[in-house]
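Reopening this ticket.

The earlier resolution said the output was attached, but the attachment link was broken on my side. Pasting everything inline this time so it's all in one place.
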Amino acid sequence: MKKFLVPIYLGIDEQALRCIEDVLKRSGAIVVFISLTSDNEVRGMRGSWIKTDTKLMHVVNDQSFNGIVIVSGSGAPSNCCYEDIIKIIKRIANKHSDGVVAGIGEGQEVLYKAGVLVGNNVAQDDGQIVTSKNVITAQGNVTLDFALEVVSYSFGADLPTMAEFCQNAIQARKIEINDPQIACDYAYANEVQDTKLFENAIQTRNIEIKKAEIVCDCTFEGESFKAEILESQFQQLLAQKLLSVLNNAVLDADKVISVSKIMLLFRYLRKTLNITIEESLITYVLLQRFVSIQAERGIQYINKSNIGTMLVVLVIVTLKNFRDKVFSNSFFAQEFGIPPVVLNQSESAFLRIIGFQLWVEQSEFIKVFNEIVFDQDSEIILIV
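Inline output:
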């Protein structure tokens, strides 16, 4: 059985971490979190706490690990480049085909300082994954593909089947699934993720999924509920909520914006930027905050002429907050026909008005998600 070491440092990207952990465990690997701080729990870059399995001092001489993965995060270069970590990276790299060292985003800098990045074996472009001998690097919003590449290299011909992936997930999380061949647990760090993402990545590796409507197990603070999420239905529910907020904030807003127009926007973003359900929902939360501040101050920031720009700004600030790499404002300006200077000024004004409060607590996310999914006034029924 493969055994992977994952250093947990102050400022690590929790979402990337949970995605990588999930894929490794599905493959049947043992994943060990080691704390690089004096505590057993380490705070991530988005504010959540990660519980670790052991301390660095207890594994520095452990020869049983087959791989080490350095996850991206704002603190990777400064909080992860300890002498003992460098020692472990070099030792595993020297195992050649029996070991794998991997780093994504800022995690590549740690591999560089360990001296295992030679020549062109480093990902430099956004969305790029590079495998050179037993060193794997990645850059950009490709965490899932990166994790699958690590699994593919490590297991080779022994790569688990889809059924085995599901069975491993059951064992790791003790989740009862009636048919493990066609059902998967898609809960990453107790957060709702886009259920299509894992399916598409698996399909690229010729692993067959026999059920089109994926059954998800979404777990929030011990409360579990199963839902068959049809993305188009969720988009329509979300569009209705966004329009409702805009109608309450702007007189005659429905004369310039509609549910269908908002849905077209999110479908376009899904196609071009692979925006997730979670990210789409965050735009709604941020709009609520902005409108609430507008009402408190009695100042009409949003009007019929800038609703479109507001929606684009919501998308930009959400993606910048959740992703390592995003397109520049000039890309969005060109795509939506907004002068770059107007878009830049609008983004700056938005951030100042909400006081740069972009983080959404899990409890708030759950509340809003439930409001949308279980909306009694909606004409759309989301099957749950």
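Reporter confirms the inline version is readable. The mean pLDDT is 76. The two ends are 37 Å apart (CA to CA).
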